[in-house]
């Protein structure tokens, strides 16, 4: 929840792997935001992140919110990408930037909150999701009477 609005994130993870590169436009077509993640302990992942940012800037919606996340901040002693280098890159490219840790959850919620604040305010989206893919699952949906008890016999 953000002020008087509920922001729903539908997350699609391409894992940045080269073998999925040709499928990536399917994921970011119609997306309002993208998070490009690199590993602060691996300079090569930062270089790949920059190429993903370039592609998003070239091919995604012009209004897309792009966030750059330097992950593994819990391993700062093994850092290969300096915070200042990534921050300068983010500033030069109008990106949100945070260092995060998936392991400790450091800044993960803050990153999503920052993205939510930058999203354009508009009418509620249909539940079919971006691009009409409609593959979402409502995790809060109650199971029908007598179902969902498969293991309690």
TrEMBL record:
Name of the featured protein: RAB5B, member RAS onco family
Residue stretches of biased makeup (Polar residues): 142-153
Keywords of the record: GTP-binding, Nucleotide-binding
GO MF assignments: GTP binding; GTPase activity
Family to which the UniProt record says this protein belongs: Belongs to the small GTPase superfamily. Rab family.
InterPro entries assigned to the protein according to its UniProt record, in alphabetical order: P-loop_NTPase (IPR027417), Small_GTP-bd (IPR005225), Small_GTPase (IPR001806)
Disordered as annotated region, ranges: 121-153
Classification via CDD domains: Rab5_related
Pfam families assigned to the protein according to its UniProt record, in alphabetical order: Ras (PF00071)
């Amino acid at each position: 929840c953000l002020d008087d609005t509920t922001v729903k994130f539908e997350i699609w993870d391409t894992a940045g792997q080269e073998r999925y590169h040709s499928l990536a436009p399917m994921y970011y077509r119609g997306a309002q935001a993208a998070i490009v993640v690199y590993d602060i302990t691996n300079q090569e992942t930062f270089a790949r992140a920059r190429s993903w940012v370039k592609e998003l800037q070239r091919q995604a919606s012009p209004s897309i919110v792009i966030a750059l996340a330097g992950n593994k901040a819990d391993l700062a002693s093994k850092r290969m990408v300096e915070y200042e280098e990534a921050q300068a890159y983010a500033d030069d490219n109008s990106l949100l930037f945070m260092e995060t840790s998936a392991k400790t959850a450091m800044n993960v919620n803050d990153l999503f909150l920052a993205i939510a604040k930058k999203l354009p305010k508009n009418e509620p989206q249909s539940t079919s999701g971006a691009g009409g893919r409609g593959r979402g699952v409502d995790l809060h949906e109650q199971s029908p009477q007598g179902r969902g008890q498969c293991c309690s016999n």
